[in-house]
Structure formats: C-alpha cells, structure tokens
Write a structure and sequence with these properties.
Layout: H1 2-21, H2 30-45, H3 61-64, E1 69-70, H4 83-87, E2 93-98, E3 101-102, E4 116-120, H5 121-127, H6 129-133, H7 146-153, E5 159-163, E6 173-179, E7 186-196, E8 201-210, E9 216-226, E10 231-239, E11 245-254, E12 259-266, E13 271-280, E14 286-295, E15 300-309, E16 315-324, E17 329-338, E18 346-355, E19 361-370, E20 376-384, H8 388-395, H9 401-417, H10 423-445
Parallel strand pairs: 1-7, 2-6, 5-7, 6-8, 7-9, 8-10, 9-11, 10-12, 11-13, 12-14, 13-15, 14-16, 15-17, 16-18, 17-19, 18-20
Antiparallel strand pairs: 2-3, 4-5
Helix pairs in contact: 2-7, 8-9, 9-10
Length: 446
C-alpha cells in the first residue's frame, strides 16, 4: 500500500502540471490558489489507509492503485440516445455534466424566477467571481481528507444554484452527472455550490450515473448554505456503473430558523463513500438526514455523517438504512456533537440494516458526544434478517415465500423513499427498488 500511495502522489502531481497548463490566465486567480494549496495537502497526506480511524472499515486501495486521468470535455453526441431522458425528472430544470463538465446541449433550463441563478459553476466563476468567492470552499476545506483535497486541486466545474432573499423555486433543479470510462479510467472532479438565501425555498436533486461498463471515479464535493428561515431539500441518488468508484462529500450550514432535509440513496458503484456534514449556525433550525443503501455482490457502501449542534434550540433527525445481499459490505458511522452552549438540543439518530445473505456484513458505529446538560438525545442501531414470523404471517394469507420476502424488504426500504418530497423521483426510486429486489431474488435462486 505504501508504494501505491507514493505512486499516486506522483501521478496526480504530474496530472496537475498538465491541468495547470490549460488554465491560461486563470492560473493567477484566487481559485487557483485554492487548487495549489489543496494539491500540497494531498501530497502531504496521500490516500487514507485502514490505519486511519475514519477509514478503518474501508480500504481505498482499489482507487489508489488506478491511475485516473482528470475528466476532459466529451462530445454530448457520443452519449447514447435516451440516457439523459431515463434519468430526468419530469417538470425539473435540468443541468447535465459529463465527466464533471457542463454539457449545455443536454441540459434543459426553463425561465427561472426572479432572484434565482442556476447553471455551471465554471461559468459563474468567470462571470461573477466575487459572488462565488464569498461561498466557495468556506465549508469544505482541503485538509478534511485526501478526497476533498484532490477534488479541490482539480476543481473545474459543477452545478451552481444561487437564490436571493425570499426567492421561490416551484420546481426542482436536477443536476445529472454522467461518468464515462470508455477512453480509459477518468476521475470526475465535481464541485457543486448551492446558496439558498434568507427565506428562500428550493429542492435540488443530484443524480449520479454511468454511461457504460468502463472504470471511472466520481469525486464530488457539494457545499450548501441556508440563510435564515430558508427551506431546502437536497436529494442525492447514486446509481453508478458496477465498475465505478464514488466518493462524495456534502456540507450544509444552517442559519437560524432554517429547515434542511437530505435524502441520500446509493444503489450502484463498486466502492462508495458518502460523507454528509450538517452544522447549525443559528438557533431554532431543524435538520433531517435520511439515507438508504442497497448493495449486492462485492459492493461496499460506506456512509459517514456528522451533525454539529453548535448553538442552542435546534433539532436533528437521522435515519439511515441498508439492505445488503451477496458478499456486500456496509459501513455506517454517525456522529452527533452537542456543544457546551447548545442547550435545549433535540437529536435523534437511528441506523437499521437488513442482511439478505449469510455473507453480507455491516460495521455500524453510532456516536453521541454531549457537552450540554439540558438536551434530549437518542441513538440506536439494529442489524438482522427478515422476521420469519412476519414471513409466515404473509404466507398464511396466500402469498408465496419469495413474494413475501420481497414485500417485507420493500417495506423496510420504502420507509426512507417515502420521505422524499419530489414525487416523480419518489416514484422512480420505488420502481427501481422493486426491480432491484426481483433481480436479487433471481440471483439467489440461481
């Protein structure tokens, strides 16, 4: 592993030199200073190993040993017909990115309400660098881990949504990220910035998918800022290709009286790591984090969450579920911090895992660190298989055993899916879940 880490540092340093030569005048911008600092950070730490506490259940050597090339522009015409349409949400504004770069020909952006901007982060950096600079890299620091460092070093494009005070989006903004590995292993460095101003309301959906069986790596960083009394739902759906890797970091900061909901659904990829962090920056705010992971074969899905109650009178609710089949592995590490001055905090965390095979495993670690005395905090984790009494109950009413097991498994997962407020997305996930369960049952029977 040591040689892999050393080789990876040299490889990405060389790729950064190539990348830097393509920037022309941008190499003197404040954003490029961020890039250079981030590369220095990656050179100092390299990829994590299982000796690192935050990564002890997840071996990232499958990523470290592949020499990925930063994604370059791809002709949208090479994307197979129907790929975007199958992923698109009816009625949503659509921003499409290929290998992390904006593809306007595949995007569909209707007239936006007054006070709302949506589009490419790269374009926003060119047109209004001062505005973007007030929010970019304010929450996610390069020193957080090797993946945010590398993603910042190769920061180029992603989705940008900016909403002024009291702006209202009556339709979702869907950001579709397509990864391609047909030309060799590529890393798609995605950087998203969503700013929801005071009293504004929005629904934003991130959709990650592959266009074929090739090997690629999506390394995404999303920063979300909610102003006072803002309301936002952020849905992330990951259905990457079987040979793909996905490392995603999402940071949200909530100002006073704001309400934020996150729904993270992972169904694809070979090795997946989701980091979600929410920080309360103002009183009387509310945060909900929901997650659902489905894995089979040798897939690994690792969910790490942090909720930081830094101020009083805030509430958080967290529910993460996993369904694991085959020889797949799941990881859940949920941390809740209640700071010394954060009195009247109300925090609830639940992690539940359903194992469909004897070879599937889960490492779960719910954590509470409480430094205040007037709080209501609970957490818990359960791991198990289907309740045979419930299976018997359904069979006694004329339902076949296989259908009974599918029905119970679907009910377990739909508890999370039904929490999504974007109805077309909820319906699609419902159908995908049914198909996935049927395919898993057929595989087990064979």
């Amino acid at each position: 592993m040591t040689n892999q880490l050393t080789d990876a540092k040299g490889w990405y340093a060389a790729k950064f030199d190539e990348f830097e030569r393509t920037l022309n005048g941008e190499s003197h911008s404040p954003v490029h200073a961020l890039r250079r600092d981030a590369l220095a950070r990656f050179a100092a730490v390299g990829f994590p190993t299982t000796a690192d506490e935050e990564w002890r259940f997840t071996n990232v050597s499958p990523i470290a040993r592949v020499q990925f090339t930063p994604g370059v522009a791809v002709d949208p015409a090479t994307i197979a017909p129907g790929v975007v349409e199958r992923l698109a949400i009816a009625g949503a504004a659509r921003l499409v990115f290929i290998n992390g770069l904006y593809a306007p020909a595949l995007s569909s952006l209707p007239a936006l309400p007054r006070g709302v901007r949506a589009g490419s982060l790269a374009q926003a950096l060119r047109e209004d660098p001062d505005l973007v600079g007030r929010y970019l890299a304010r929450q996610v620091r390069a020193e957080e881990n090797a993946f945010t460092a590398l993603g910042t070093a190769f920061l180029r494009d992603g989705a940008f949504v900016y909403m002024e005070k009291n702006a209202l989006l009556e339709f979702p903004v869907q950001c579709i990220f397509l990864g391609t590995g047909s030309g060799g292993p590529v890393v798609c460095s995605v950087r998203n910035l969503f700013v929801i101003g005071e009293g504004a309301r929005a629904s934003i959906v991130e959709t990650y998918a592959g266009t074929g069986p090739g090997v690629y790596w999506t390394n995404s960083v999303t920063e979300i800022s909610l102003g006072r009394s803002a309301v936002a739902e952020h849905d992330k759906v990951q259905t990457e290709s079987a040979g793909a890797f996905h490392t995603g970091t999402t940071h949200v900061r909530l100002d006073g009286q704001s309400v934020f909901t996150s729904n993270c659904v992972s169904m694809g990829g070979s090795l997946v790591r989701n980091n979600v962090t929410a920080v309360f920056g103002g009183e009387n705010a509310e945060c909900t984090l929901n997650g659902l992971s489905l894995a089979t074969g040798t897939q690994l899905v690792d969910n790490h969450t942090v909720i930081d109650h830094a101020v009083p009178h805030c509430a958080s609710h967290e529910l993460y579920k996993s369904i694991l089949d085959g020889s797949s592995r799941g990881v859940f590490n949920g941390k809740i911090f209640v700071r010394e001055d954060a009195q009247k905090t109300d925090a609830k965390q639940t992690n539940k895992t359903l194992l469909l095979s004897d070879d599937a495993t889960i490492d779960t670690k719910p954590q509470l660190e409480i430094f205040a005395d007037d709080v209501k905090c609970t957490h818990g984790a359960t791991v198990g298989q289907l309740d045979e009494d419930q299976v018997f109950y359904l069979r006694a009413r004329g339902i076949g055993e296989a259908d009974a097991r599918d029905l119970l498994t679907f009910a377990f997962a739909s508890d999370v899916i039904n929490r999504l407020h974007v109805e077309p997305l909820r319906a699609r996930l419902d159908a995908m879940l049914r198909t996935r369960l049927q395919q898993g049952r057929v595989a087990r029977e064979d």
